[in-house]
């Protein structure tokens, strides 16, 4: 496994955090397995980040997934330089509880302390990330939002308020995976 170099290299970097289940299930519901083409969507996402925002911190993004993450999807993530963070379910009295959201929030807050992180690129349309986005704003980190579909965005309206504008180009920093 390749090590991730997070030592300061100079320049503004992008912290890319992806909520796997939010992306997968939203795209699956709208497109089905035949038209989803995750590899193409991730390639377009990476090109957009490079063109519009800049270089990724550690030259990779981070994708957070539950334990049942498949080998096929794992390969797509690896090919697109996404480091996979498995988030095991927590055992609770009545069954299991998902830990993806809280893990992304914890990891994101920790990584935003890196001196080169100037952009947070969150791939999710989920309002559960409002605390992470508030923390980014508090730390003067620019927020880019990537939503799986317009429908995901319209059902989670609070997150729309956090879509930022690029400090240099003044372009709105939002990308839709359903338009790829």
Give the topology, please:
Elements: E1 13-19, H1 20-35, H2 38-53, E2 55-56, E3 61-65, H3 71-79, E4 82-86, E5 90-92, E6 95-97, H4 100-111, E7 117-123, H5 130-138, E8 142-147, H6 150-154, E9 174-176
Helix pairs in contact: 4-5
Q: What can you tell me about this protein's structure?
A:
There is one protein chain. With 180 residues, this protein is an alpha/beta fold. The chain is 37% helix and 23% strand. It has 6 helices and 9 strands. Strands 1, 2, 3, 4, 7, 8 and 9 form a 7-stranded parallel sheet that branches. It has a two-stranded antiparallel ribbon with strand order 5-6. The longest helix is centred in the N-terminal third of the chain and has 16 residues. The two termini are 30 Å apart.
Concise summary:
The chain is an alpha/beta fold.
Main pleated sheet: 7 strands, parallel
The run of helices and strands is EHHEEHEEEHEHEHE
pLDDT under 50 segments (min length 5)?
Answer: none
Task: Kindly estimate the percentage of residues that lie in beta strands according to DSSP.
Answer: 15-25%
Number of helical segments with 4 or more residues: 6
Mean of residue pLDDT values? 89
Q: Can you tell me the CATH topology? A: Rossmann fold
- Termini distance? 30 Å
Q: Classify the helix fraction into a percent range.
A: 25-40%
How large is the radius of gyration? 16 Å
